[in-house]
Structures are given as structure tokens and as C-alpha cells.
Amino acid sequence: MLCWLALTSRAGAQQLTNTTADPLPPNSTNETAEGSFFDPFATEKTTVAPKEKTPDPLEPMNRVFFQINDKLYFWVLKPVAKGYNQVAPQPFRTSVRRFFVNVKYPIRVANNFLQGRIKGVGIETARFVVNSTVGLAGFFDPASKWNIEMQPADFNQTLGYYGMPPIIYFDWPFLGPSSVRGTLGTAGDTMLTPWTYIDGLWVSLGVRPYETVNATSLRLGEYESFKQAALDPYVAMRSAYFETQREFIEHRGPGTRESFEP
Questions:
Q1: Does residue 147 form part of some domain?
Q2: CA-to-CA distance for 148 and 143, rounded, in angstroms?
Q3: Is 219 a domain residue?
Q4: How many domains does the chain have?
Q5: Which DSSP state fits 77?
Q6: Could you tell me the pLDDT band of residue 241, with boundaries at 50, 70 and 90?
Q7: Quick check: is 145 in a domain?
Q8: pLDDT tens digits, 79-113
């Protein structure tokens, strides 16, 4: 599954585009592109906080994997998603996305609990019950209309909440942007997804690719716009990943975290 494209769902298309102003061309160093900024017009009382440098010691390998994922998107995922668009109307595809968001309830409720957000556990549970019943297994989202907001949380956030740093950056083939912490977080979340325990290997293997195709069909053009706006798409993607993960950890609480709408 090309989860790497899901950064446009994790970060959102606007956040990805907004981060493309900082990256420098490929020959530039990380220290220059992502280091601190000196303002010669700043007063003594004005300080500019330096950006956290991106730990990417495996950049040459990661760039190769980034190019592999890029080609897989344009040669495989995008054509399949465009064909899917022709046979599945948008309201149906939107409902399918809601269904997948709903079944990821165990990830959100478990990590709310691990972070001590007991109120979040209760709200998330109420949301799941409403959408699973009134919302017909989650294909509709009446809970949002009733102001029962999603309580976003995943295992990556939980590890960050308890102080684990990203350590280093990875750009995994098929999976995309991650880190040591993010990889552990993905493994933990996978253990909480229902299709991990579905009997039948082909059923389990087919669910995630279908989810990816459905999600991509609703976001065609976002990755293309991101690449066009970026001086160096690899650096822009990496910066967007770390920034969105940092914000997700620092600003915990209700919302519509896009990582649950891949």
C-alpha cells in the first residue's frame, strides 16, 4: 500500500504546500534549509526560535525510495484511482472513507487512554456508538452534526507524548515518510486495526489497498500540486512530515486528524 501518499492526508494539502517555501535545491544542506533564521532588523527583545534540524543520516537511500514511491503513484495508484472514479460516485467514496475512519476507533480510544485522556475515551466511544448505529456502520457521520468531535490519537503520538524523539527519518518503499518512532507507532496501530485479525489472508491484504485507492480517488491532484510548488519535493515532504507530527503531539485534543482519513 502506498501509505507515503497519505502524508497529504496526515498533513493536509495546504500544510504540504505551505512547507515548500523553505526547502532548498537538492545540493543544499539541511543546516541551511532547516536551520535558524537571523533577522538583522530584530530588536534586542526580539528572538527567533530556531527550527529543529531534521535527523536524516540515510538521505541518499531515502531519496531513492522517494523516487520509487513517486513512480508507483504516477504509474499505478493514480491510474487505478482514476478508473475507480469512473465507476464509483463521489458520495459513495466519501461514505467508504467515513467507514474506514469509524473502524479505526480502537486506535483512537486505546491511545487516548494511554495518554490519560479519559474524557477523550468517553467522547470517542460515544462517537463510535452513534456512527455505528445511526450512521449505519460509519458510512454516515451524524456524530459530527451533534458536535461529538473525533478525539485523534495514535501510537506515534503516544510515544512522542512520553518523550520519545523521532530519532531518524525514513522514507519507506510503499509506506512513505516515517521515523523510528513513527515506524513503531505504525506497528502498534496495525495491531489495533480490525482487518489484522480477519480470517483469510486475501481479505486482510485486500482491505488496505482498497482503502488507499478510495482515499486517493478523493484527493487526485493534491500530490501533483505539492510537487509543482516544491523546489525539492523530497525535502518538502520530509519537512511536512516532521512538522505535522510535531504539531500533532503538541496540540492534542479534538479535531479531524487527517491521519484517520487516509
A1: yes
A2: 5
A3: yes
A4: 1
A5: I
A6: very high
A7: yes
A8: 999 999 999 999 999 999 999 999 999 999 999 99
